[in-house]
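subagent[fold] <- orchestrator: predict structure for attached chain, return tokens only, no commentary.
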Amino acid sequence: MKNIQVTELTAYVKSALLGVAVGDALGVPVEFTTRDQCKLLPVTEMKGNGTHYQVKGTWSDDSSLTFCLAEGLCNHPFDLRQVADNFVRWRRENYWTARGSVFDIGNTTKRAIQNIQFGKDIDHCGLDDVRSNGNGALMRILPLVFYTLNMPIEDRFLWTKRVASLTHGHGISVLCCFYYLEFARQLIEGRSKVEIYKELQGRIPSFFRDNAAINQELTVLNRLLTQDISSIEEKKIYSGGYVVHTLEASIWCLLTTDNFADSVLNAVNLGWDTDTTGAVTGGLAGLLYGEASIPTLWLTDLAQSDRIIDLAERMAHGVHNA
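subagent[fold] -> orchestrator:
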């Protein structure tokens, strides 16, 4: 990994956090809307009301928990307990909410946060059964890439597993988070999205070759690891809450567009879990195209954009000095 100065690192962190929040906010009003409905009335701009009756520019739990993780990364040394406590504060005290209230939370995340509240060891709070592979860890994991940038791949995986497992401990969720962060890491390196996609088709299976537990799960990523997902027709790209589908959809949206706006709008207009698909896609698109690529009006409408920028600056200094 190249040596990144704090000013450049700050720019990347801002792009990532704003990208997540913008994609999330675009998707909030149409969450659970079918794809056919999105085709009839596609999202083309930031809107309010809709599914959750929120003001325009409001982001959801996806961004809130992303920011809770980012806050933990502002401090040195990085303490996973603080992140866990931030999750509890969000759930109980509306910490890092867009408008002062929690209006959306997944069942697995809810139960995991209850485990944290009840004093369960934070390395075992996340649910680890196969049915608990929603996208609740993937949606918030992106800030971790900046902490693990210069670590060897073995350590990058271990930290991904620890942070994901605060809520989602099954191997499939961990694997999807790891793939996502490895993609993000190479975007920061300046590689093209197509080059990254092809490179990960070799790197991911190679790394897990001797890891029997994860190696068994690799088949769930067959479309990403053995095919050109960008050539798959839209009707075969799924956008519900299953973590594999969210990851596939985000990579598909990134590979089939050439700018920030189109990538996140395509993600949201896939329907169903629109806020999370938008957030996960927006994080990568922010890294790829930069803050300047995000439409100004969307940033103007975005709830607490100044606070998000302040968080990005503090986090960049935190991980740079770690």
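orchestrator: received. Logging for downstream: The chain has a mean pLDDT of 96. The chain has one domain: 6-320.
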